[in-house]
Design goal:
With 133 residues, the chain is α+β, with helices and mostly antiparallel strands. The chain is built from 1 helix and 6 strands. It has one helix spanning 41-80, and strands spanning 12-13, 18-19, 93-98, 104-107, 117-124, 130-132. The chain is rod-shaped, with a radius of gyration of 37 Å.
Length: 133
């Protein structure tokens, strides 16, 4: 038994055996309203720019934090490998110098009171981390 073909004006899907005019993304009759797709290009471009800016800003923040942590690590490594014969007190400022053998040593003496090769001043914080002053 063969099915009778519907006229061209009738929107009938032979594969699903259903009338599917309401499911089409385009107008199916002369009297139907014109369907124009919304241009979302400008919205997408704005969204892309916002997301790119947000990600770049976050990346720069993380990069700056990483560089700060690496600098903190280097300072701590430098001081912990320096020569000193006392136990540093938390909250006190100490001064790092180079001796004649180009070895680092930590001292309580401020740079204006001595003639040593001054490297920098550091504070031991409550977390036992040396911070450059």
């Amino acid at each position: 038994m063969t099915k009778k073909k519907k006229p061209d004006a009738v929107v009938y899907n032979t594969e699903t055996d259903r009338y599917d005019a309401a499911l089409k993304p385009y107008a199916t009759s002369v009297g139907a309203p014109v369907i124009t797709p919304t241009d979302t290009t400008a919205w997408k471009n704005r969204s892309i720019n916002k997301v790119n800016h947000k990600i770049k800003t976050k990346y720069l923040e993380l990069k700056a934090e990483y560089e700060r942590m690496m600098q903190e690590f280097e300072y701590n490594n430098l001081i912990l490998n320096a020569n000193f014969s006392f136990e540093p007190i938390i909250g006190e400022t100490y001064h790092l110098y180079l001796n004649k053998k180009e070895e680092h040593f930590l001292s309580l003496i401020a740079p204006e009171h001595c003639n040593f090769n001054y490297v920098g001043s550091f504070l031991l914080n409550a977390d036992q981390i040396w911070e450059k002053v």
